[in-house]
Amino acid sequence: MPSYNRYKRLTYHQKQIDTAKNAHKRLEKAQVCESEIVRSTKTNAKCHHNPRLMNLKTKNSSAWDRMARSGHVLATPATEEELKNPLRVVDEIGWLGGSIQGWRVLCLAAGGGRHGPLYCAAGANVTVVDLSSGMLEIDREIAMHRKMEIRLINCDMCDLSSLHNAEFDLVVHPVSTCYIDRPSAVFQEVARVLRPGGLYVSQHKQPMNLQASLLPDGGNYVIERPAASGSIAASPTQPSRLREPGTEEIIHSLQSILGGICRAGFVIEDLVEPHHAKPDQPPGSFGHRCAFIPPYIRIKSRRLQNTMTESSMNKNKIWLGD
After folding, report:
1. Distance between CA atoms of 35 and 30, rounded to whole angstroms?
2. What is the pLDDT of residues 61-103, one digit of tens each?
3. Complete domains list, the chain, with CATH
């Protein structure tokens, strides 16, 4: 299947701005080719009172809208071949147990015509949430073209108030925590909408990936940014597969990512570093840098049956010495 930019744009009903809370029940029953992208009118309270966070949110959503329009590789839909065996594509590690038929799956911050259609083709009941309306448009076009039922919600991943408690069996979350200042807010929302015992599969940029230079200096990749969470990654001086064009990325420590997932009420069952290393490639290339700095971590975690609050967990600390 060619890039969706080559498809003739499909005609669909006029968009109607509505609150996600009131509209999503109607969308569950409607064919996606006859429904709209539901747009949440809520604004994250913390962002609303913090101009820097509002600017960060606006800058990154606009950047992803541009990527969707330009046919960026991260806005490329699943291919015909991939849709023939979708579970092998989305679960090459085998974390999902061989079948997700009938599962309620949330693809979080996962617009772009890839995750939603693949999980739907694997038999799941799929909801896609994304802040970028442009990325969700790609999902809608694919769903219309293939007659798939996919619920699409345009909202902030830090505020999933349009979704019910314990609504999903699986939350799939590709790389995106680097675009927000506080990953813990997302992890808490995921814990709320995921049923006890449900799976949370997420991928994140390694802290060192965002701290280090993209190009070698004197034959070495150099640490340019501090390790503290909240530091801003350096903007690339030229296009790079390791940076999304026009975005502003925030460095988050492993404590913020791994610890944040645990403190939200999950137990981490597995963790891998997806393999992209090609040390024989030219210095400064994607594969060469990945041989020295694995760019991503992928995490399998499970929602605990009885979620402990962060304050109650702090009362049960174990001293390991300094």
Report:
1. 6
2. 999 999 999 999 999 999 999 999 999 999 999 999 999 999 9
3. 4-174 (3.40.50)
